[in-house]
């Protein structure tokens, strides 16, 4: 043995030189990762530090649980002791929490720092970018110096308002909320597990319960993880030509929106949750409870407790993280040890522990054998070199050894690599799931990381690969938001950590490597390939996208095929591939790329003239809309430089100007003259000035015209000189255009140097944006050529483009930031050079849309083997031949695509993303199905809501008809109401000795009135409902104002006070004196002159009632004298309606109407006079409030908005009075004024949001009991309900559950 070890050590240099031994850090990472996966049930790691972190984390969890397991097992009750029940509850909670954590310790570290350090440390301020200081939580800081009113140009502050990436702040918030939610859910799971374990379910029902659990898990898992994924595959079982369960976008040619959730996806998600958290948890707890005493007896209490803790944690974490093979695990373990080898079982718990390890190794061995057999199949072998042809026959005697190599490599999880791409396979060294040792990711070359000199002298990064890499970066961001949720929906089929997928579309082709797959999180890496790949890559892409459904061959005959089935040849070929298509319409948010040659756009001189003309017009637009225009016009240096140009006879004879290019070229003077410039562009100049918020005077406009003329000369001269010759070939013209487009501004004439001394903002905010705008307008010229001659249309086009489009060079950092910000439209001018030195100019237009990808699942052992082979060939064997045989196309294994995706310099991907983690909570569709975060505050609100609903429902079911407590004060006149005291004018001293009883409601559109002066035991109130004023009536008193058709009436100004002849006939039994009724109805009449009787009265305020109020019609609502004698409790409440001013009162209120019909006022007693006077004062205040509300409505109709003071602001004081379920559209619910309000006015829309005490909002509607309008009628007889808007939600709440923020809210409410 010693000699063998020494010989192995001596052979280390040779073995290592062939790449058969790993580095120390790689081996340590691999070893720790395997320990965490196979012993603690963990997931893959992202590096050596990550591997150490996950192992320490798992050991800490076991240490925390070990004591409870030991305390329970040492007692006589063993697994039924209370300590063991606590252990089971904690085991479930800890396992759930660990399964939800990422293996990256940086996530936890950032979470800890965010709660400890609120800002950057002083030492780190120098290393903190200005954007990081300016912006916080992904929000753009508002400019402290706002732009002047005329400044509408977004490009002026492009540097100051630099776009900030919102993703880091969003992910930090997601991780924080996810951590808080996991604490709550883990606590709930722990309590439930503890409670179930205490019920002796796992002992009294054994062994039937254990058998029922593994049968249920196996049956449900077989459907979820075998049948259902096959039903959704593109070619189920590689026999059928189309899926059984089609996606909603399957037949769409182009995606028009995000993927729609289909019913099978919802069923799959909920059944997976049920399987994971119910069946698998019960199965684990059953096995732990049943087998723990046996393990403790066999190994001792100390070791037994440790074994039970480790095995239980691995089992639960494995179920929570990845249950795609759970059905195989539980069924095969049960059948193997309970049917085949009955006496070999070491308890079902330990059987499951070791069976999971064996099953994973057997599955890995199966994948390796599939890869090998597919790769060396003689009928589809592709020899990339002469060595491949030579090695093919020598691999036949190697087959037996190949089987043993595959078994060994599967045992140690080492890749099985083809030697130099041939049919001879070797076992490579062990690697972690991440595979690559270094954290490689693409560094994009742009102006932010290159020197200024290199930007001017040459074009850094001017190649398609560097410029196109941003689209893969954007795809990575999109996948980061949606991938975990999409995998949960099963849209990529059955997925496990280590799997490799390929996404293919028209332009984008990339590999997605699933590195870590936890509970509700996925860590992946994207490797983007070239847009225009090599010949071999194109052949393999064609093999992926070609359809096989039309193939009708069977061997050498055309026998056809059965409906929806593959032909014989197609089915056979699909089985000899190392990849399969799992979905053809996977929808991801991305960009549609339009790539047009700029040469064809500017080949003709007329098209160049259009560009120059649009450039001048855009320049005029940006000058007039600039916020610094006044400073420019007062700049002494600029005025001195422009002094010669003020004359209309000024002409610039520079030969760079040409009649074929410049619209304002003067043929007589052979140059560009000021007079010709004004002839061409003066109308446009005046129109742009007219669109300013504050148009300039004629004198100032003349100065602007001179400035624009000088700037256009500078811009055109710079464009022509950068082109070497303005009228030369199109390549020269495009060279100058591209230099200006990317911001290279270098004047070659001394006549233009004034612009440097004046203000460089003229270049950054006027000249460069004008050139960019002109290119976009020239693009639209082909579509709307005639419309661009209209100044209004042209102006609106510029405004629209300036608002919706991002016009920037691709090397500008703003281009990358805009793409990552999902800007809808973008345009750039690209200049690329190929390896031969040929230059090409292309116009790139991006439009945000939803892209459809084909999802191809590749055998992960095929990918690992080919990657390992390339690494050995290039790094260890030093084969740098770019046409080596190992990278030639092989369609059956996608050899060229896989080898091209290796890290550089081994492969040549144009983009490799950093390790990216996607969380389930960032997928909106998944959250809409299973819900979002759960926090302690959300649980508290849910409990309060449940209690409030129970209280309200129980109160509504009471026989009294009210849900408020009964009055104990004997002064109360009715049940369910309480006394209120309102200090209104005229009410002082009139309520003593009377019980003032009224409703507990109080809404902003109501005026409360003390009516104790009218009746000794009641106190009604008025409801000011502004929407009911027009055309409302009060015919009970026979009074008409503004055109009522009543007999015996007389007109006085705008009001008519009628006699009571017709009123008495309509009332039948009750009537009021004429002067009494007039005083009560018209508060502007002589209610103060209580001693006079007659039809003529004196105005209180000198005002008249608006003639638009119609108070002529009414229905008799007052009770008869007989009814009055029966008392208030016997008769209930009656209502008087006055043009939307409604009084609720007891029948005793009608005592004011019991005076004789023609009794003079002086004959009334003093108390009745006081009642009438108070009522008149009350009506005056009510009608004044109505006038203000009407004025507010007219202001709203005229201006489209109301002053915030006019809207009543309230604060919730008792959240228990919120009605969160009256928006369900039931007959017993209220009628809502607006459907949008109804949809947002209940817990079905609020989800986890719950109104609590202290929230503030605006009252937008109210429901009042017994209201004549159904829309304003409350469904409760004793509650007025307010509709309070809080954000985008509408909260119905009883009036006594709110507090007004100001007293004016009651009167100025709209």
TrEMBL record:
Keywords: Membrane, Signal, Transmembrane, Transmembrane helix. The chain crosses the membrane at residues 46-69, 183-205, 212-228, 267-288, 300-320, 371-391. Residues 134-157 have a biased composition (Basic and acidic residues). This is Pecanex-like protein. Residues 1-19 form the signal peptide. Its main location: membrane. The keyword Transmembrane applies. Belongs to the pecanex family. PANTHER family: PECANEX, PROTEIN PECANEX. GO terms for cellular component: endoplasmic reticulum; membrane. Residues 134-161, 1045-1067 are annotated as: Disordered. It comes from the Eukaryota. Pfam families: Pecanex_C.
């Amino acid at each position: 043995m010693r000699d063998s070890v020494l010989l192995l050590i001596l052979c280390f240099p040779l073995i290592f030189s062939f790449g058969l031994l790993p580095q120390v850090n790689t081996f340590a990472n691999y070893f720790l990762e395997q320990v965490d996966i196979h012993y603690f049930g963990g997931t893959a790691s992202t590096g050596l530090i990550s591997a150490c972190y996950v192992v320490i984390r798992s050991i800490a969890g076991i240490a925390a649980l070990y004591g409870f397991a030991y305390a329970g097992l040492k007692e006589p009750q063993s697994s039924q002791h209370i300590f063991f029940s606590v252990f089971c509850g904690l085991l479930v909670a800890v396992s759930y929490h660990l399964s939800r954590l990422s293996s990256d310790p940086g996530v936890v570290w950032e979470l800890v720092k965010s709660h400890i350090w609120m800002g950057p440390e002083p030492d780190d301020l120098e290393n903190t970018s200005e954007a990081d200081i300016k912006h916080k939580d992904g929000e753009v800081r508002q400019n402290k110096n706002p732009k002047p009113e005329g400044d509408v140009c977004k490009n002026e502050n492009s540097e100051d308002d630099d776009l900030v990436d919102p993703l880091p702040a969003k992910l930090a918030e997601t991780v924080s909320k996810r951590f808080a939610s996991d604490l709550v859910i883990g606590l709930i799971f722990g309590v439930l597990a503890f409670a179930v374990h205490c019920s002796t379910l796992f002992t009294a029902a054994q062994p039937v319960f254990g058998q029922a659990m593994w049968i249920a898990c196996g049956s449900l898992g077989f459907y979820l993880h075998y049948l259902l994924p096959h039903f959704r595959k593109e070619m189920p079982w590689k026999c059928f030509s189309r899926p059984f369960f089609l996606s909603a976008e399957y037949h769409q040619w182009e995606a028009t929106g995000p993927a729609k959730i289909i019913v099978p996806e919802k069923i799959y998600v909920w059944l997976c949750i049920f399987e994971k958290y119910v069946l698998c948890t019960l199965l684990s707890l059953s096995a732990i409870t049943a087998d723990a005493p046996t393990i403790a007896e066999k190994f001792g209490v100390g070791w037994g407790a440790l074994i039970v803790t480790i095995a239980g944690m691995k089992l639960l974490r494995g179920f929570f993280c990845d249950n795609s093979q759970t059905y195989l695990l539980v069924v095969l373990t049960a059948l193997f040890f309970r049917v085949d080898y009955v006496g070999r079982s070491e308890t079902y718990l330990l059987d499951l522990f070791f069976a999971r390890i064996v099953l994973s190794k057997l599955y890995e061995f199966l994948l390796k054998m599939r890869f090998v057999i597919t790769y060396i199949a003689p009928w589809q072998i592709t020899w990339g070199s002469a060595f491949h042809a030579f090695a093919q026959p020598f691999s036949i005697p190697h087959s037996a050894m190949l089987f043993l190599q595959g078994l060994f490599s599967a045992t140690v999880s080492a890749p099985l690599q083809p030697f130099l791409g041939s049919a001879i396979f070797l076992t490579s060294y062990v690697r972690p799931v991440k595979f690559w040792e270094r954290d490689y990711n693409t560094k994009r070359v742009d102006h932010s990381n290159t020197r200024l000199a290199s930007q001017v002298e040459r074009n850094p990064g001017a190649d398609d690969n560097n410029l196109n890499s941003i689209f893969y970066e954007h795809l990575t961001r999109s996948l980061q938001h949606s991938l975990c949720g999409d995998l949960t929906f099963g849209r990529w089929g059955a997925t496990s950590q280590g799997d490799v997928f390929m996404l293919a579309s028209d332009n984008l082709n990339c590999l997605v490597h699933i590195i870590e797959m936890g509970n509700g999180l996925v860590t992946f890496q994207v490797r983007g390939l070239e847009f225009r790949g090599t010949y071999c890559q194109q052949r393999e892409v064609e093999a992926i996208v070609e359809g096989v459904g039309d193939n009708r061959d069977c061997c050498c005959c055309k026998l056809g095929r059965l409906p929806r089935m593959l032909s014989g040849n197609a089915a056979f070929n699909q089985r000899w591939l190392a990849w399969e298509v799992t979905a053809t319409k996977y929808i991801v948010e991305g960009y549609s790329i339009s790539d047009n040659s700029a040469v064809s756009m500017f080949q003709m001189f007329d098209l160049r003239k259009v560009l120059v003309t649009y450039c001048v017009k855009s320049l005029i637009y940006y000058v007039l809309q600039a916020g610094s225009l006044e400073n420019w016009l007062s700049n002494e240096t600029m005025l001195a430089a422009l002094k010669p140009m003020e004359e209309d006879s000024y002409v610039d004879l520079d030969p760079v100007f040409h009649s074929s290019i410049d619209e304002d070229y003067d043929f007589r003077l052979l140059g560009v003259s000021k007079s010709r410039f004004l002839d061409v562009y003066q109308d446009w100049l005046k129109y742009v000035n007219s669109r300013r918020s504050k148009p300039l005077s004629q004198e100032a406009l003349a100065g602007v015209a001179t400035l624009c003329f000088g700037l256009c000369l500078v811009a055109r001269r710079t464009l022509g000189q950068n082109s070497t010759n303005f009228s030369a070939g199109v390549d020269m013209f495009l060279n100058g255009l591209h230099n200006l487009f990317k911001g290279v501004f270098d004047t070659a004439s001394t006549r233009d140097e004034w612009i440097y001394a004046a203000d460089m903002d003229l270049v950054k905010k006027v000249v460069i944006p004008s050139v960019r705008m002109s290119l976009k307008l020239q693009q639209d010229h082909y579509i709307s050529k005639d419309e661009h001659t209209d100044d209004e249309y042209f102006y609106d086009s510029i405004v629209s483009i300036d608002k919706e489009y991002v016009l920037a060079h691709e090397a500008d950092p703003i281009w990358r930031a805009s793409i990552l910000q999902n800007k809808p439209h973008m345009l750039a001018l690209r200049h690329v050079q190929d390896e031969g030195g040929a230059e090409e100019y292309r116009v790139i237009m991006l439009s945000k849309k939803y892209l459809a990808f084909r999802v191809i699942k590749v055998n992960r052992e095929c990918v690992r083997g080919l990657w390992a082979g390339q690494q050995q060939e290039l790094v260890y064997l030093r084969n740098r031949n770019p046409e080596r045989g190992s990278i030639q196309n092989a369609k059956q294994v996608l050899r060229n695509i896989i080898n091209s995706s290796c890290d550089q310099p081994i492969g040549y991907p144009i983009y490799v993303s950093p390790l990216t983690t996607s969380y389930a909570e960032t997928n909106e569709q998944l959250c809409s199905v299973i819900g979002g975060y759960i926090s302690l505050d959300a649980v508290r609100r849910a409990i309060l809501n449940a209690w409030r609903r129970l209280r309200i429902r129980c109160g509504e079911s009471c026989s009294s008809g009210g849900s408020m407590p009964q009055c104990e004060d004997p002064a109360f006149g009715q049940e369910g109401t309480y006394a209120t005291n309102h200090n209104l004018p005229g009410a002082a001293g009139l309520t003593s000795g009377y019980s003032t009883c009224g409703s507990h409601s109080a809404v902003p559109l109501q005026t409360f009135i003390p009516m104790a002066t009218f009746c000794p035991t009641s106190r009604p109130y008025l409801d000011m409902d502004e929407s009911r004023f027009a055309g409302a009536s009060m015919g009970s008193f026979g009074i008409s104002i503004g055109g009522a058709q009543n007999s015996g009436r007389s007109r006085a100004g705008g009001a008519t006070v009628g006699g009571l002849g017709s009123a008495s006939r309509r009332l039948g039994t009750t009537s009021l004196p004429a002067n009494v009724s007039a005083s009560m109805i018209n508060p502007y009449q002589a209610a103060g002159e209580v001693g006079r009787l007659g039809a003529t009265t004196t105005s209180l305020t000198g005002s008249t009632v608006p003639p638009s109020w119609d108070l002529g019609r009414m229905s008799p609502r007052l009770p008869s004298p007989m009814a009055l004698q029966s008392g208030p409790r016997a008769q209930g409440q009656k209502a008087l309606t006055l043009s939307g001013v409604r009084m609720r009162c007891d029948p005793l209120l009608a005592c004011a109407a019991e005076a004789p019909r023609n009794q003079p006022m002086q004959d009334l007693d003093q108390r009745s006079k006081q009642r009438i006077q108070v009522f008149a004062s009350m009506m005056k205040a009510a009608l004044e409030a109505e006038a203000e509300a009407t004025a507010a409505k007219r202001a709203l109709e005229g201006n489209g908005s109301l002053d915030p003071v006019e809207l009543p602001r309230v604060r919730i004081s008792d959240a228990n009075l919120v009605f969160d379920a009256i928006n369900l559209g039931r007959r017993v619910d209220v009628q809502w004024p607006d459907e949008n309000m109804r949809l947002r006015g209940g817990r079905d829309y609020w989800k986890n949001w719950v109104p609590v005490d202290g929230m503030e909002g605006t009252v937008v509607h109210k429901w009042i009991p017994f209201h004549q309008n159904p829309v304003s009628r409350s469904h409760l007889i004793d509650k007025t309900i307010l509709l309070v808007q809080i954000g985008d939600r509408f909260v119905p709440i009883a009036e006594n559950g709110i507090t007004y923020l100001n007293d004016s809210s009651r009167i100025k409410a709209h």
